[in-house]
Amino acid sequence: xxxxxxxxxxxxxxxxxxxxxxxxxxxxxxxxxxxxxxxxxxxxxxxxxxxxxxxxxxxxxxxxxxxxxxxxxxxxxxxxxxxxxxxxxxxxxxxxxxxxxxxxxxxxxxxxxxxxxxxxxxxxxxxxxxxxxxxxxxxxxxxxxxxxxxxxxxxxxxxxxxxxxxxxxxxxxxxxxxxxxxxxxxxxxxxxxxxxxxxxxxxxxxxxxxxxxxxxxxxxxxxxxxxxxxxxxxxxxxxxxxxxxxxxxxxxxx
Length: 254
Prior knowledge:
Blueprint: H1 8-16, E1 28-30, H2 33-43, E2 45-50, E3 60-64, E4 70-74, E5 77-81, H3 84-92, E6 99-103, E7 109-110, E8 113-122, E9 130-138, H4 148-151, E10 154-156, H5 158-163, H6 172-190, E11 199-206, E12 212-218, H7 233-241
Antiparallel strand pairs: 1-6, 2-3, 2-6, 3-4, 4-5, 7-8, 8-9, 8-11, 9-10, 11-12
Domain ATP-grasp: 17-246
Organism: Paenibacillus marchantiophytorum
Keywords: ATP-binding, Nucleotide-binding
């Protein structure tokens, strides 16, 4: 029997079944013209991305401006549409081709640049899930995606990112404890459907008010990100949990 799809959309639907986790998930829908406009009207900003890609490839932000125009950002490039029909036409070719539309989270920023978090959750056979490491990915100048390769951003500790952010006045210890709790709940929710997985890299975020969000879950996360931290102890701990090469998971590395 073939394995269950590891697409963003499939994992989102599994996570959404948990009433506890649903409030940590940005609203997400299969890309259709109706869902595109409904969510853009509701949130003012949305993300369109392929459900099967990794590393920030193909992530596009659409923002409604104050003068009822639409700003589309792809990488560092921005394009302005003044007509609704022109914007619809530009996205019509993506409809029905494995794209999702998602509520845009107003990410907390470190020194003015958006950042999100990679939280590693792992288990050894017949043992509970554990958080084995976490870091912050800070977007490069002018980018909306935090992927280091695409945006030229940087990796810092979560503690440092929080100190440089709008959340510096909040209790960092409590924020990180809640982050770990949500990450573990996500792993526990997904694991019955993906019994072969023992490593998850959960991309999470704080918004500007300190609320926690689950952006997506990767089953073959790029561990080398942790080598960019001065302290290599988290990398060593993460590697100690790996029984098989990441390529065996069936999901592309990011």
